[in-house]
Amino acid sequence: MVTANLVSKYGARATRVLLAGTMLSSLPLAAHAQGQAAPAPQLATPAPVAAPVTRTILSLRVEGSQRIEQDTVLSYTKLRVGQPFTNETLDQAIKDLYSSDFFADVSIAGAESGNIVLRIRENPVINRVILEGNKRLKEDKIRKEIKLAPRQIFTRTAVRQDIARIVELYRRQGRFAASIQPKMVALDQNRVDVVFEISEGSKSKVRAINIIGNEVFKDSKLREQMATKQARLTTLLSSNTSYDQDRMAYDQQKLRQFYLTEGYADFRVTSAVAELTPDKKDFIITYVVEEGPRYKFGDVTVDSSIRDFDNKKLAEGLTIKKGDWYDAKKVENSVDQLNETAGLFGYAFTEVNPEFNRDRETLTMSMNFNIAEAKRSYVERVEINGNTNTQDKVIRREIRLAEGDAFNSFQVKRSTDRINSLGYFQDKFELKQNPGSAPDRVILTADIEEKSTGELQLSAGFSSLESFIIQASIRQRNFRGKGQELRASVNYSSYSKSIELGFTEPYLFDKNIAIGGDIFRRDYNSFNLTASGDRNTTYQQVSTGFQLRTGVPLTEYWSLSGRYGLSFDNVTLDKSTYYTNGVCDPIRAGRYLCDSIGNRATSSVGYSLVYDSLNSRLRPSAGHNFIFSQDFAGLGGDVKYIRTKFNASKFWGIGGGFIASARAEGGYIKSLEKSRGVGIDKIRITDRFYLGEPDFRGFDIRGVGPRVQRVPYVTDANGVQTLTTNRDNIVDDALGGRAYYSGRLELEIPLGSGARELGLRPSIYVQAGALFGVTRPLPTIANCANGATTSCFPTLANGAIGQAFIPTLDASGAQLYSFTRADGGQITTTCPVGIPDSTGACNGIVPNTRLGQAIDPFLERFVGDSAKPRISVGAGVNWTSPFGPLRIDVAYALLKDKGDDTKLVTFNVGTSF
Question: Buried b / exposed e across 393-421, counting CB within 10 Å, b at 16+?
Fold first, then answer.
């Protein structure tokens, strides 16, 4: 009983009324026609249109409502008791009820009598909204977008809208094949469960990027400029192979920028179309371009309204010159250069407008940089926003301008670099310049976003240097928000153990004076390579001590720091391995190790002169630094020397995200002690410099510099004796050196955004260095042919080298012998024959067996003490992996000296490097 039925009923009745009226009105005409001749034919008169039948609503009633009150239902219509109504009025009431989205079906009855009945069927209530099939998008992300929710009224319109929202989410992820199938599960009490069955489909990749109209540059060259990449095996790790409309617009800008930097000022993209393949899996992007002619720079002039500037000198100082190929990037740099120049003179808001004069006949682009008139500016105030933990003074003391100072753009940049170097805030912080209360006033605004400065690390890993590693450390770089640093660390590995505590106050009593201190305990095990190729522990060094530090700035870039340290070192050797009769045995350990054992105290005072203009101390990309330091040991203690070191580095960006760096360092130790004996260096082995992995890649740890090698003799099947050539059978002891130098050139290579998201930073490098300057140690065992009579290797009759005999001596230095008693027992005596009587005289004629040790022949050689450079080349990558930082290097030694230990591949994971 809907509106259409009502209209048909009323229409039938009106038709009957009209027909009856027509028949009655025609009767007189018919009668008159019988008595007269028929009149001349006349045009028919149209029948009048019936007016809408108007009735009155006698009563209103609602049927079918379950949750909604009758008055609420009636409130959605204009029907009221006592008011007139027509068919159109009833039709509008039905439309109004449907538009409320509360009803699934509506009909009206009782129109003939005026007793109107609204018969409704309410829309169901949503019990649950269920998502099925979503794997690539988490449920919480989808639910944030859809509007349907439990206890809401179900409508098909809302379902369609939510489907469109979900599909759009998947399209943003590049999944254009995603489809949503809605289902409704009816429940009791007019409730439903709404189920969205999601078919995500595969991610739509960019199958091809076609470029039409390019003649100067190849397609591959132009694709390199775009952020969007074609889906290939080489781009598996990239996230830019999916289609993105915003990225496509960005690529058009990148193309234009590229052509503008190459001199094509008329370049334009006439069309950019992305077509989805029929299977909806991939996109094909097509660009149509017009390159146009190539331009050169014409006349370059500067027109300044600021009287302080010399226009001619400003123009001469610009990087662009007449005759160079036009480059839009150089134009931007020139604008920045002029703004910076104006900023150096205190003009904060200088407006530089480049004017282009294009000559299409000569293909030249003349430039005029118009510098508008400006007033010299002053800093009105410095505002700091966003810091919740860091105190204002920590930030303000890094800003090189104060309220009332004349504005200087160089100081603004320097302030930005110093704040970034703190490492307390998010990267790419910039100190903004905003207009002040007057045209000549500037407000410097620091809108910062703090990041966590506390570090708690508990890690385990494996290093090619130290095998298994356990590390635990806690560090707060912004302690109490005052910029103080507090740290504690514990490290354990196969070759080193340490515990350290440290504290640094960078501004003592709010003065630019830094002070700090460290206390430590370090256990270090040195090692050599045994004949089997394994690492064998040689000496153990236990160091306990502390250091106090202080530093003051001299200028903006120069600073001076001083320190005092006191440490107690105990160097020992394994007695079971290297001792004989309770004394260090040079045959087993080597004279150089026996000379190093013992306890000693080192009291040293030192200073460092530092120049630092790096734009960041964390990951510099510009600037350089230089450190010259000296330490004087001998202010008390047992050790006396002067240690001098220098370290310099420079970083610069060379465009395209590449960062080049050059590093150089060196050092020398001069002893202030008297000679400690022939063949014994004045500088102890634990105080010398060492060079190798990880600082000198391509060489093993302590792999460069002076060393002593024991090369054993081997005899082949024919009885011929030769020195072994198998490096694994040579015992190798690094001695360190008193002087060293090292340098490295490195280029950090930028990767795509996908690799950057993974934390990959590859680089290539070349290194050179050397370690040298140590006293040649005396041989442990000489050849008897060289004049030695005891503890020497004899030359046999066949020319071969024989075993050396090392006698066993008593406490007084007398040779010990073994005497066999009649019962088989052994007696140790100093008598060569017989045994001593009560007076101490030797009685007997039977020779005794001399006690001692037979040593297989070997050649001991001193190698590597040379200042000639060792050179290596290699490539490495830093990876900030989920399980810790990782560094892998592949380096090859191009030049090396005899005895150097090389290493091709090194890695370190689970600890900092």
Answer: ebbebbbbbeeeeebbbebbbbbbbbbbb
Distance (Å, rounded) from C-alpha 123 to C-alpha 783? 109
Dist CA 659 CA 651 (whole Å): 7
Q: Helix (H, G, I), strand (E, B), or coil: what is residue 839?
A: coil
The whole-angstrom separation of Cα 467 and Cα 908 is: 10
Buried b (16+ CB within 10 A) or exposed e, 830-841: ebeebbeeeeee
Q: How far apart are CA 181 and CA 163, in angstroms?
A: 8
676 burial level (CB within 10 Å; 0-12, 13-18, 19+) = middle
What percent of the chain clears pLDDT 90, i.e. is strictly above it? 22
Please indicate whether residue 426 or residue 667 has the higher confidence score (pLDDT). 667
Are 118 and 97 in contact, with CB atoms under 8 Å apart?
Answer: yes
Task: Please tell me what DSSP assigns to residue 237.
Answer: T
Alpha-carbon span 161 to 166, nearest angstrom: 9
**What pLDDT score does 260 carry?**
92
The Cα 697–Cα 464 span in angstroms is: 12
Helices assigned H by DSSP within 459-585? 575-578
Task: Let me know how long the chain is.
Answer: 913
User: Do the Cβ atoms of 686 and 570 come closer than 8 Å?
Assistant: no
Using alpha carbons, list the distances in angstroms from residue 490 to 20, 286, 402, 647: 113, 59, 43, 28
CA 629 to each of CA 476, 518, 613: distance values in angstroms, whole numbers, following the listed order: 27, 19, 18
Kindly provide the residue ranges of all beta strands, DSSP E only, lying in 337-453, ordered along the sequence: 352-359, 364-371, 378-385, 432-435, 441-447
**DSSP annotation of 39:** P
Residue 487, CA distances (Å) to 516, 520, 562 in order: 11, 12, 20
pLDDT at 780 over 80: no
Measured CA distances, 211 to 215, 216, 260, 294 (Å): 10, 12, 17, 19
Question: Amino acid letter at 43?
Answer: L
Average pLDDT over residues 307-311: 79
Q: Are 776 and 679 in contact (CB under 8 A)?
A: yes
For residue 742, give both structure tokens. Answer: 């090292």
The residue type at 21: G
Extract the tokens encoding 216: 């100067």
Other beta carbons less than 10 A from residue 641's beta carbon? 20
Average per-residue pLDDT for the chain: 81
* Run of H or E including 409: helix 409-422
**DSSP state letter for 887:** E
Q: In the Cβ-directed half-sphere of 413, how many Cα atoms lie within 13 Å?
A: 15
Residues 6 or more apart from 738 whose CB is under 8 A from it?
668, 669, 670, 681, 683, 688, 689, 772, 773, 774
DSSP result, 737-799: BSEEEEEEEEEEPP--HHHHHTTEEEEEEEEEEEEE--PPPPPSSEEGGGT--SSEEPBPTTS
Q: What angle do CA 688, 689, 695 make, to 5 degrees?
A: 155
Token pair in block for residue 636? 């008390």
Within 495-619, where are the H helices? 575-578, 586-589, 591-594
Helix (H, G, I), strand (E, B) or coil at 837: coil
Positive or negative CA dihedral for 182, 187, 190, 191?
negative
What is the C-alpha separation between 591 and 57, in angstroms, rounded?
123
- Asked if 308 and 281 count as a contact pair (C-beta separation under 8 A), the reply is no
Q: Which of 51-55, 253-257, 632-636, 664-668 has the lowest mean pLDDT?
A: 51-55
Answer whether 483's CB lies under 8 Å from 474's CB.
no
What does the buried/exposed string (b/e) look like for 504-520 if buried means 16 or more CB atoms within 10 Å of the residue's CB? Answer: bbbbeeeeeebbbbbeb
Edge-to-edge strand list for the sheet holding 125-132: 125-132, 191-199, 179-187
pLDDT in tens, 564-607: 999 998 888 877 777 776 777 777 777 777 777 888 899 999 99
